[in-house]
Specification:
41% helix; 329 residues; alpha/beta; 13 helices; six-stranded parallel beta sheet; globular
Length: 329
């Protein structure tokens, strides 16, 4: 089916159902949060009962999203019944139930119609309706098109703000390879609908604590250049977080610094967690970095992917991933 047919099926579901639960992946980013907030605002405006329930807390630099629409962090005793009793469950910016983490059981037990709206490849079978557009720069772009299909005047100023944040963050401020003229036309329409690009950028990227910069300093200081200058890797250990009074969420976007070095084609960032290691992968050009991530149980886009690796020390993980990275240069 093309997007128009998928949107029409979605419209039928929206028209015929009343209670909705929306979610996104664990450790939500701007695209996941902006997409679910925008869709929740639209559905609420149509008189629907809507809850946003995410596995993870909303990162501090996205708390302004909660002023647009309430976002709850999943508590089994409080939210389990809300999920299982909903008529419609919508997953945004993820097509894998495993990325719901502890919510997965409640979601799979639910008799709700399940909709997946996403732009990632390799979907898992769990939904009744998949609206997946891999060429899209962001899930927010798909939601924008869906809302315009449903109602030409659907994009109110708060919805425009949420969708602009979604698209701006997932395109790396409109510089990643998928960004094209259509992306900019959508962004322009969102500005016309009330999004303020200066305010949104400042809230996300220029309103953090000094501790985050200290953590960035640790990450940059750890950087090593490998494989004859083609790979750059950064490492953060648990002690770095303890000594700078920061957390995993403060690492957001740090991986992108690896690709600012001339000659570097692959960027890697390793974050030691209480359990396991989080690895972020980035690449330039036609290097399918998501294939490298898949070797370690992860996934993502061709030029941006991630994985969480359990078992083995941080140093073991770094050694294995760096060795395999050479095969993708």
């Amino acid at each position: 089916m093309d997007l128009t047919q998928l949107f029409e099926r979605c419209k039928e579901i929206f028209d015929g159902k009343q209670t909705f639960v929306l979610t996104t992946h664990i450790n939500p980013d701007g695209d996941g949060l902006g997409s679910e907030v925008a869709l929740a605002l639209y559905l609420t405006g149509k008189g629907k009962s809507v809850s946003i329930i995410n596995q993870s807390e909303t990162p501090a630099y996205y708390t302004f999203m909660k002023s647009l629409f309430p976002i709850a962090a999943f508590l089994p005793e409080k939210h389990g019944s809300i999920i299982t009793e909903a008529e419609v469950f919508i997953a945004l910016d993820t097509n894998s139930p495993s990325r719901f983490s502890a919510m997965k059981g409640a979601v799979l037990r639910s008799g709700a119609l399940k909709i997946c709206i996403d732009h990632h490849p390799d979907r898992e079978a769990f939904a009744d309706l998949y609206i997946i557009d891999e060429p899209a720069t962001a899930t927010g772009e798909i939601v924008f098109k869906l809302l315009k299909y449903l109602d030409h005047n659907a994009v109110t100023p708060p919805i425009a703000e949420a969708l602009y944040a979604a698209i701006m963050t997932d395109t790396g401020s409109f510089r990643f390879p998928k960004t094209d003229s259509e992306t900019h036309r959508i962004a322009a329409e969102l500005l016309d609908c009330g999004a303020n690009p200066t305010t949104i950028y400042q809230r996300i990227f220029e309103d953090g604590p000094a501790a985050k910069l200290r953590l960035l300093g640790r990450a940059l200081d750890s950087m090593t250049i490998l494989h004859h200058g083609a790979v750059a890797a950064m490492t953060l250990r648990q002690k770095d977080f303890a000594e700078t009074h920061t957390s995993e969420e403060d690492t957001d976007n740090m991986i992108n610094y690896t690709l600012t070095i001339g000659g570097v084609k692959i960027g890697l960032m390793f974050v030691e967690l209480a359990e396991g290691v989080k690895v972020s992968f980035r690449s330039k050009g036609a290097i399918p970095i998501n294939a490298l991530a898949k070797e370690f149980g992860g996934n993502g886009h061709m030029n941006a992917a991630g994985a969480r690796i359990y078992g083995g020390t941080l140093d073991d993980v770094v050694k294995k991933v760096v060795e395999r990275a050479e095969h993708y240069i």
